[in-house]
Amino acid sequence: MSQVVPSEAQQPALRPVRKECPPGACDCQREALLECLHAPEARVLWLTREEEKRLIERISRVTTYDELLHVGHLMHKNLGIRLHISPGPNEVRTVRGLQIQLAEQPGLCRKTRDTIPAAIRKCLENNPTIVYTLLDAHDLLGAATQPPDQA
């Protein structure tokens, strides 16, 4: 005998979306994404304030460069957020010399564009080995293979 499944169970569960920012406080274009919540670009709206706090906590637990890359990859995969960390154009004497940016995209709140890089910067200040590895990955410490001497 077959069971009848209620229509509610057939519909996929909707994820909560981020609440709108106060008027004039943000330029995230949230309303445009609300029209098509099933689009891949709308994934960024899943980053509610509670989820953002969890993400900040996760970033604070990062202890290696590979973990930092993994968190960046997960942010892109799950939310569509692209994280860019690179040495600045001038000398890098402190963590402030690094450029930490989230790519501009609709739905990404101005506050979020500030808090995630600030959390990453704090993580890098607490773990200088990550900074050294980051600089080394961009060949600023000279660890890449040197071209053979031409005689």
Distance N to C terminus = 85 Å
Q: Mind describing the biggest β-sheet?
A: 2 strands, antiparallel
Strand content: 5-15%
Number of strands: 2
* Mean residue pLDDT: 81
Number of helices: 6
Helical content, roughly? Answer: 40-55%
Radius of gyration: 20 Å
The topology string of helices and strands comes to: HHHHEEHH
Backbone shape: elongated
| Uncertain spans | 4-13, 144-151
**SSE class:** mainly alpha
How is the largest sheet built, in terms of strand order?
1-2
Structure description:
- The chain has 151 residues and is mostly helical.
- It is 42% helix and 7% strand.
- It is built from 6 helices and 2 strands.
- Strands 1-2 form a two-stranded antiparallel sheet.
- Helix 3 runs parallel beside helix 5.
- The longest helix is centred in the C-terminal third of the chain and has 17 residues.
- The radius of gyration is 20 Å and the shape is elongated.
- It starts with 6 loop residues before the first helix and ends in a 14-residue tail after the last helix.
Tags for this model:
two-stranded antiparallel sheet, mainly alpha, 6 helices, about 150 residues
